[in-house]
Each structure stands twice: as C-alpha cells, then as structure tokens.
Amino acid sequence: MARVTYIVPIDHISGKLFKSSDLVFKYRKDTKTKFTSLHVPSGVAPSVSMLNARTKFASAMAEVKQIMLSDQLRAPYEVEYKKQNKYKSLRTFIFASVLPNQ
Fold first, then answer.
1. CB within 8 A of 96, min separation 6: which ones?
2. Residue 64: exposed, middle, or buried by beta-carbon count in 10 A (0-12, 13-18, 19+)?
3. 41 to each of 37, 44, 68, 100, 101, how far by Cα in Å?
4. What pTM value is reported for the model?
5. CA–CA dist 78, 99 (Å, integer)
6. Which residues lie closer than 8 Å to 66 by C-beta, 6 or more apart?
7. N or C: which end of the chain has fewer CB within 10 A?
8. Contact 27, 33 (CB under 8 A)
9. Residue 75's pLDDT is what?
10. Of all residues in the chain, what percent carry a pLDDT higher than 70?
11. Which residues contact 15 (CB under 8 A, 6 or more apart)?
12. How far apart are CA 86 and CA 7, in angstroms?
C-alpha cells in the first residue's frame, strides 16, 4: 500500500483511471486516507448465490428503467420520494423499493 500525494489540486480519486488498469486509487471517508492497490481478479467461478444475486440485480434494474420511462408508473414513487430524505436520487429510491420484491 502506498500513500498518494497529488501535485495538482485534486481532493481525491477513487477507482481505476482506465478500464484495463490494474492500479486502483482508493479513498476512505472515515479516516480521510488516500492509498493505492493492485486489482487482482478472482480466478474462482461465481457461486450459485452470486449468480442469483446478479440475476436479481439485473431484473430490478430492468424494472427501474421501465418505471423511469413511464410517467404513470413513476408518479407514486415521486410522491413517496419527496417524503423521505434517505435517498438522494429518485432512481436509487425506486431501486431500493423494487429490489426486495425480486
């Protein structure tokens, strides 16, 4: 693990700089620590529970896209979204509402 000091005025960078990069920049909000690591993909095949979770996520995202495109379907979610302050975007609020039903 290496500490990062930026020579340009950047607060922090998180993630890869480009898709094929093995170097990952990380930032921890709790300790305000900046560090780097190497991305090492797993060589293990995904388990059944992982595949089920991916399928559940994909079907929830497909339903969210349909709701976001339809004014009729989106209207009740907009009313509930305005009553809460946990989610910062309507899309994430709808996703959190739809995911448990998958």
1. 87
2. buried
3. 12, 9, 34, 29, 31
4. 0.65
5. 17
6. 73
7. N
8. yes
9. 97
10. 91
11. 24, 25
12. 36
Give the strand order in the sheet containing 2-3: 2-3, 33-38, 23-28, 15-16
CB 60 within 8 A of CB 99: yes
Q: What are phi and psi of 71, to 5 degrees?
A: -65, -40
Two tokens, residue 71: 């004014």
Buried b (16+ CB within 10 A) or exposed e, 65-92: eebeeeeeebeebeeebeeeeeeeebbe
CA–CA dist 41, 73 (Å, integer): 39
pLDDT digits (tens, 9 = 90+) for 43-84: 899 999 999 999 999 999 999 999 999 999 999 999 999 999
